[in-house]
Design a protein that fits this description.
disordered N terminus; mainly alpha; 93 residues
């Protein structure tokens, strides 16, 4: 771990705040060794996968927020033409 002096609570706080370097954003780096040892190998793998899913979803939400911000900015600057009547667009049947 890059920040060896950090305890697990501090690492988790920094992860949640988005302040932890990407290289340290892995489940096994945030959980104390004793806790990992108390779990079986299969549970450690399961927790790592769940953490990866959570992290990916968090990044996806962040990407969606960026797209929304850009689209909101762009659409507010665009003038959408107002049609007085749609009857000229569609011939009478």
């Amino acid at each position: 771990m890059t920040h060896c002096s950090l305890n697990s609570e501090e690492s988790l706080r920094r992860f949640q705040a988005g302040e932890l370097p990407e290289s340290d954003q892995q489940w096994h780096r945030l959980v104390p060794f004793e806790a990992r040892e108390a779990l079986g190998k299969q549970e450690v793998q399961r927790q790592s996968v769940l953490f990866e899913v959570f992290t990916s979803e968090r990044e996806y939400v962040s990407d969606l927020e960026a797209v929304k911000e850009v689209s909101d900015t762009n659409t507010s600057a665009v003038s959408i033409p107002q049609f007085l009547s749609l009857s000229g667009l569609y011939p009478a049947a």
